[in-house]
Design brief:
The protein has a 4-stranded mixed beta sheet. The chain contains 5 helices and 4 strands; from the N terminus they run H-H-E-H-H-E-E-E-H. Helix 1 crosses helix 5. By secondary structure, the chain is α+β, with helices and mostly antiparallel strands.
């Protein structure tokens, strides 16, 4: 009886140990699988973070490069506008200086000679503002004496500040030598050249 009881105890122990070992093995296997999943998920998350970081870095680098390019373009445009504005101011000052000097009367006379000398030019009118006409009238009348007989007339018009205009053939042909028109013409002539020089300076 005692032997049977001992055998029963031994069997219970053995069954308990085997069950515990099986349970431990199952737990260990589950823990290992969970650990592998955690590591795999962590690797995937780390890879995703790295990819996102690289993409964000690439985006920031491109954005920075674009901003630098735009800033360069803006600076060049601003500089070009500043140079053009300065050139226009210089042109305007020089045109005003010429139109305010003794050379102005000679300039008018030369222009009239060139226009009136054309075979098809008739009824040539020299148009100046009232102030210039008053100050230059004697000089122009003396210089244009022969031309005046052939149909050149002096007229006043206060629609422009300085310079002069020439009309021929009863207004059919017309040229504007006003200060504003000459400044515009010279500015338009110089602007492409200034732009070309700025491009060469890059």
């Amino acid at each position: 009886m005692e032997i049977q009881l001992q055998a029963l105890i031994d069997q219970i122990k053995k069954d308990g140990v085997d069950a515990a070992a099986t349970e431990a093995e199952a737990l260990l296997k589950a823990a290992k699988a969970e650990a592998e999943k955690i590591v795999s998920d962590a690797k995937a998350e780390a890879e995703k973070i790295l990819i996102n970081a690289k993409n964000e870095n690439d985006r920031m680098v491109k954005s920075g490069e674009d901003a630098i390019r735009q800033a360069g373009r803006n600076l060049l445009i601003s500089f070009r506008e500043s140079v053009t504005k300065e050139a226009n101011a210089i042109i305007s000052e020089n045109v005003t200086a010429v139109y305010s000097s003794d050379a102005f009367a000679k300039l008018v006379l030369n222009a009239v000679e060139a226009w009136a000398g054309k075979p098809d030019a008739e009824d040539v009118s020299v148009i100046l503002n009232s102030e210039d006409l008053k100050s230059l009238e004697d000089t122009l009348l003396a210089g244009l004496k022969d031309r005046m007989i052939k149909g050149v007339t002096l007229k006043a018009n206060d629609n422009f500040d300085g310079g002069f205009r020439i009309a021929a053939n009863n207004g059919g042909a017309y040229y504007d030598y006003s200060a504003e028109a000459v400044v515009d013409m010279l500015s338009n002539y110089l602007s492409p050249k200034v732009t070309a020089l700025l491009k060469e300076a890059k």
